[in-house]
Write a structure and sequence with these properties.
This protein is of the alpha/beta class. It folds into two domains: 1-99 and 141-147 and 193-293 and 395-415 and 474-538, 3-Layer(bba) Sandwich (FAD/NAD(P)-binding domain); 149-184 and 295-389 and 417-468, Cholesterol Oxidase, domain 2 (2-Layer Sandwich). A hairpin with a 2-residue loop joins strand 12 (228-236) and strand 13. It contains 14 helices and 24 strands. Strands 1, 2, 10, 11, 12, 13 and 24 form a seven-stranded mixed sheet that branches. Strands 7, 16, 17, 18, 19, 22 and 23 form a seven-stranded antiparallel sheet that branches. Strands 3-4 form a two-stranded antiparallel ribbon.
């Protein structure tokens, strides 16, 4: 295991892509270290099986935040993938790049290597888009992206028509020239199976002789000698050892694990590290700071017509869709629960969409303990319209609690901690009701169940979304990239400031949070990151 040109810590959305791209020449030796195990599990491969993974410690870190005043004092559940493919193996598979202007923001902070002019060609090279290649989308790349136009629930079209009636245009491709509007979500699904970063990138790379992947191995710290990362200390099978590199260490553990590992290695806020007796190798208060995440909630309705509840709840319905999936690879189990979506502005003065919509032809008001009840919805015909904010201004942090790498760090989300975020969400939930009041959807709704018709005043609506909101599973920016060391953790080449031979390449390095789902941008970090790393090497 010693002597790899690159040690990549984490096999998630970015780490899998990094491993494939850095090893593509057949000569560069790459070692990937993953704390979790194999992704060859039925409920991982079956797209709708992710509900079974939501509380499964075999594949999931099962993080919890500190009690959050912005969420009515609730502790939020933060699932993150502990498995080959990372969170791309347990997520809802929606493929959104973000708004073009998000990358203008990146360029302003991290330079032209991360602006739209470099990002668009990288996305196009990475993608194999079922909807077809054009000036905006790629064809023939390693990542197949489903157009998600077949087998949609019959309620998707009334939903789209209602949003159109509420004032948004119909959009064929949220990753095309315009994001604002309503339509269906493209998915990382291929042939009825989840198309995770592991399946699309890591497993093809594992066929090369210059790639080694070890699982079930927790990295304790980065080993740094004379200001340079020379390897990592790991625990494998109960044995502690150091794995050394001939080149560099790249952290790709995500927005929680990467700052945690830097802090454990002596890189982070001085007072925090000294308080835990960790020698301070580099004082940087940005490590674990700037935590940014999307917050969202659902409005739920009882319907006059059948929904996925009627198919997925009864035993005979489970049997039917199960046989359909096993025999044909189609049906509800072959898709995400988020079939429809959209982006809108809460105020016309907003320069770009600042809210995202999710349409689900099912409901789960009566959850089962220990399972996100996607496969066991409510015993009535129900539907949900959800939303999340695109660029919240609230910031939290990640901080280790001890020198034990197995202990979860302190996660403070600080949701809705700014007046701007509260005002945006208040306007957004009112728009949900505007959608539900439009024909033809309004004619199919029997009643609003959550929050219910008695929730009317601004104060009531705010209290409701504080009580019922939660993460949309997009934590980012905790090792943010930038040209200004005073505000960043890594430079535009992803190098950790002040330490040689150490980089961070994952969603933690986002300069800003992307306005949309973060799996596609995390994979982009791996693809574009590999290009930046290779160019620096040659």
């Amino acid at each position: 295991m010693d002597g790899a040109d690159y040690i990549i810590v984490g096999s998630g959305s970015a780490g899998s892509v990094l491993a494939e791209r850095l090893s593509a020449d057949g000569r560069t030796k790459v070692l990937v270290i993953e704390a979790g195990g194999t992704d060859l599990r039925f409920f991982v491969q079956m797209p709708l099986g992710y509900g079974k993974l939501f509380y499964d410690p075999a594949v999931n870190w099962l993080y919890k935040t500190e009690p959050d005043p912005g969420l009515a004092g609730n502790r939020d559940h933060w699932p993150r993938g502990k498995i080959l493919g990372g969170s791309s193996s347990i997520n809802a598979m929606v493929y959104i790049r973000g708004h073009k202007s998000d990358y203008d923001d990146w360029e302003a902070i991290a330079g032209p290597d991360w602006g739209w002019g470099q990002v668009l060609p990288a996305y196009k090279a990475m993608e194999d888009t079922e909807a077809g290649g054009d000036a905006w989308r790629g064809k023939g790349g390693p990542l197949f992206v489903s157009a998600n136009r077949r087998g949609l629930h019959p309620l998707v079209e009334p939903y789209i028509a209602a949003v159109e009636a509420a004032g948004l245009p119909r959009i064929e491709d949220f990753n095309g020239p315009e994001q604002e509007g309503v339509g269906t979500y493209q998915l990382t699904v291929k042939g009825g199976r989840r198309n995770s970063a592991s399946r699309a990138f890591l497993r093809p790379a594992m066929k090369r002789t210059n790639v080694e992947v070890i699982t079930g191995t927790l990295v304790n710290r980065v080993v740094i000698e004379n200001g340079r990362a020379v390897g990592v200390e790991v625990v494998r099978g109960g044995e502690r050892k150091v794995i050394r590199t001939a080149g560099e260490v790249i952290l790709a553990g995500g927005a929680i694990n990467s700052p945690q590992l830097l802090q454990l290695s002596g890189i982070g806020p001085r007072a925090l590290l000294q308080g835990l007796g960790i020698p301070v190798l580099r004082d940087n208060s940005n490590v674990g700071a700037n935590l940014n995440d999307h917050q969202g909630l659902n409005y739920t309705y009882r319907m006059k017509v059948p929904t996925l509840n009627d198919e997925l709840r009864p035993w005979w319905g489970k049997l039917k869709v199960g046989l359909q999936y096993l025999l044909t690879g189609t049906g509800p189990l072959s898709m995400s629960i988020n079939q429809g979506g959209g982006f809108f502005r809460t105020d016309p003065s907003q320069p770009r969409p600042n809210m995202q919509l999710y349409f689900q032809a099912f409901s789960t008001l009566l959850p089962r303990v220990g399972e996100r009840p996607i496969l066991s919805p409510d015993p009535f015909s129900g539907m949900s319209i959800g939303l999340s904010n695109c660029r919240p201004t609230s910031r939290g942090h990640i901080r280790i609690r001890s020198t034990d790498p197995g202990q979860h760090p302190e996660i403070v989300a600080n949701a809705y901690s700014t007046d701007t975020d509260v005002a945006e969400m208040l306007a957004a939930v009112k728009f949900i009701r505007r959608i539900a009041a439009q024909k033809p959807l309004a004619d199919l709704i029997a009643e609003e169940l959550r929050p219910g018709p008695d929730c009317r005043t601004d104060e009531d609506l705010i209290a409701d979304f504080r009580a019922r909101s939660g993460t949309v599973y997009h934590p980012s920016c905790t090792c943010r990239m930038g040209r200004d060391e005073a505000k960043s953790v890594v430079d535009p080449a992803l190098k950790v400031f002040g330490i040689e031979g150490l980089r961070v390449c994952d969603a933690s390095a986002f300069p800003t949070l992307i306005g949309g789902n973060t799996n596609a941008p995390a994979m982009l970090m791996g693809w574009r990151g590999a290009e930046v790393i290779r160019s620096a090497r040659h």
